[in-house]
Amino acid sequence: MASEQANVYVQGEVPKGATTSDYYKTKDIPNRFENPEWFQGYGGKQQHPMYKTSAADYGSRVPTVHTMPTSFYCRSQKFSEHLGKCGMPRNHSLNTETDKSKV
Length: 103
Prior knowledge:
mainly alpha, 29% helix, flat, 2 strands
């Protein structure tokens, strides 16, 4: 029975399949934040201890419901959509620099 109970819980003593809204009051969060078990790719190859940073240590941990954001405010893509249609701005100003000799 103890082995069955161990399979139900994941790291941090949270039951498998738990959602963020089960533990915290959430507001308009995407499904990827609601279900932290969906995240993949953690625990890759080991880094050399001399070059390991604290950010790499934090990023190597699998996310849990306690590390997920509880609110999400998306940004408008209006500026990027406009640049996609008309292109990046160009500089048409006068070039006053002398040309360099390649000799």
